[in-house]
Amino acid sequence: MAYWAQEDPKDYDGEIPGDYNNASAIVHAVIDFYGRAETAFFPRFFQFIERLINEGDAESQNIAVVGYLETLQTAASWKQHGPEVFVPWLQPESKRWWAQIYQWWQGGKSLMDIAVEEAKNKGNHDTAS
């Protein structure tokens, strides 16, 4: 949080940066740790993501999938090692979502794009009834 506030405190009006910004910062750290071969905590980290997906409410699940997994895939894609190096640590539901994210990106859309489209479509259906 201190990092985000340092960037431009006026952007945050004294509020915390938010779960997605925090997830992004954590994901970038995970990528850096991988680059230094410091992966001892990876099983617990990926277990945490799996737990969010399996046991969290809808918002927690979305943070796990979009905030952690999608960010990890896209950010690691810029690295020489690529995102696939993280697959061995993924657990069953995380692997399923990982594959889904990959498929969505092949179609040129991010999970956030799809979520926005779904929200718009739901809003259109709600007003039509």
Describe it for me?
It is a single chain. 72% of the residues lie in helices and 0% in strands. It contains seven helices and no strands. The protein is an all-alpha fold. The chain is globular, with a radius of gyration of 16 Å. The longest helix has 19 residues. The chain has one domain. Helix 3 runs parallel beside helix 5 and helix 4 packs across helix 5. The N and C termini lie far apart (43 Å).
User: In whole angstroms, how far apart are the ends?
Assistant: 43 Å
Overall structural domain count: 1
Low-pLDDT residue intervals, each spanning 5 or more residues? none
Quote the average pLDDT.
Answer: 82
- Shape estimate: globular
Q: What can be said about the biggest beta sheet?
A: none
Q: Which secondary-structure class do the elements indicate?
A: mainly alpha
